[in-house]
Amino acid sequence: MNSQPPRRRGFMFWPQLPTFDDLPPEEPGEKTPFMRPAVDPVSGARYTQVIAGEPLMSLLAGVSAMALGFFIIYPLLQGAITWIGWAARGKPGAFQDFLTAASAYQYPEGMLGSFLALGLFIPLTMFMIRFTHQRRTVWLASLQPGMRWRFLLACVLVSIVVLNIAYWATSGRTDFHWNPAPNTWVWLLIIVLLGPLQAAGEEYLFRGYLMQLLGSVLSRPWLVVLISGVLFTVVHGWQNMPLMLDRFAFGCVMGALVVLTGGLEAAIAAHAVNNVFAFGYATLSNTLTDARTINETSWAIAGTNILAYLVIGVIVWRIGIYMRVAVKTP
User: Fold this and answer.
1) Band of pLDDT at residue 19, cut at 50, 70 and 90
2) What is the pTM (predicted TM-score) of this model?
């Protein structure tokens, strides 16, 4: 007779999420000429400790792969997709001028190339986790392991409500004017279909692989969160102080949620909702180029946004506790 207490059911009507014990076991020693057997992280490890104990060469390879992807592969892929659009348009003017304008989202090819290129970081980080660190790729998504889809959906719903309240309480109330361009449907199609991919790519890179790399050499997860937040802010280029604090706060809150919930779902949800609605509203008001090239904001808007990030953080953290999401490896 089973003496185990009944499991608590998930959020609302959702069933209990699967545990690590429910996963099919891997065949021990099974491998191919190109793949060594994957190993799981030690028991009781936090998200930042998934690849702890890796040799120095593996860590250097991870850092090199990130730099290669961000500074070489990403611009090359974005440029290639933009070139295809330029050629399809009959090569209007010099390609460099077209590339500059497209990168500022004056042409849909620029957004398409940017979103697809950033989405490339999902398979790239998975490749590094599997072939450089010999961990199963599901450990990048969460400590369940794997993507916890019901929790992700809950985070999306919370982010939609909170971020829209913050938007319409500040810039949306004064800056939004209905003025869609003739090809608005093209932009919205790219934003809705590929915006979440772009956000997930950034999260797999900055809150996923980067935090696991930093955690392999730093024992304090909150130090990992701060460093990843700094790097996330720096790669966004020049910005005034309020916008810098806005992006730094976003990076830190999302990084903290990764540690507190044991996965990327909350960060992906908030990032995707933020980008989809921000670019969507900008498209409908014909201010997409301004939204793309923004490098300053006011203290009032930054403060409201930071408050919204914290509200999202508290709510989804509590939802994660209610749904009993894994915050440590089994």
Assistant:
1) very low
2) 0.88
